Amino acid sequence: MNIQNAFAFHPATEVTGPVHDQVRELLKDTALKLEKLTPECPEQTQALNQIRVAMFWANAAVACHSNEKAV
């Protein structure tokens, strides 16, 4: 693990900013659809929380490793 990179601030750039927006929009749409398809219950809450976690990690990947892959 590159600790310096993992704990560094990674501001959005002209390249990564739009990718962050796309990730958020994709997972927001998924969460809205899941909310409509499932009953309100603890399991639904967990599923929606996991989508938020996925959004966090996807955006962390973009922020921390955007120089490793053309986005």
Mean pLDDT: 93
Unreliable spans are none
Q: Spell the H/E element sequence.
A: HHH
What is the percentage of strand-forming residues? under 5%
Number of domains: 1
Silhouette? elongated
Structure summary, number of beta strands:
0
Describe the model:
- The chain has one domain.
- It is 70% helix and 0% strand.
- It contains 3 helices and no strands.
- The protein has helices spanning 3-6, 16-37, 42-65.
- Helix 2 (16-37) packs antiparallel against helix 3.
- The two termini are 22 Å apart.
Structure in a nutshell:
The chain is mainly α.
Tags for this model:
71 residues, mainly alpha, 3 helices, 0% strand
Q: What topology emerges from the helices and strands here?
A:
Layout: H1 3-6, H2 16-37, H3 42-65
